[in-house]
Amino acid sequence: MPRVLSDADVAGFRARLCHAAEQLFAEHGIEAVTMRQLAVALGVSPMTPYRYFRDKDEIIDAVRTSAFNRFADALEAAFDSRSDPVERSIAVGEAYLDFAVSHSRAYALMFDVIDLKSPPSEGLLAAGDRAKTCQFRHVQGLIDAGVITGDVSDYGNIFWAIVYGFAGLLLLGQMTPDEARRLHRLACLGTIAVAAP
Question: Residue 32 above 80 pLDDT?
Fold first, then answer.
């Protein structure tokens, strides 16, 4: 008879499985990874993952939810670390770059277009919304402080496109982290200057 699992047991194994899945998905592609491979990576029986997740889609969803929440944590910490609205915007972008480099596997899974049979869970949708809100919040701060004028959605997407581009170049090895941070700062200051009242 199987051992009764506590909530802590379940949460711990789910976290371990998601960590293994993040690595395998990034190394081999989502389509190439099976539930059996995940079980082998964890040293458990092939049926064990099914005690914790319905199928691979549910694991992918959980991995992406975790990644978006960790990403949002990093952006929120950067936002809270500065009081000046301009420096806060730059800090949020730098936190974005740092996350993309330090958690490249998670970052790739967050933004890969994934065609799954199951719709995204409420948790994944909420985590994605939280991360997006973090990227627009500093722009609202610039507007509220009178540093720039314009639509928060327009400028939020502009700042996002800037940092997304630099993150992509960084991950492709086309520039160093120091170079990406320096150019990101210049791009942000240039955008702020253009949008100034």
Answer: no
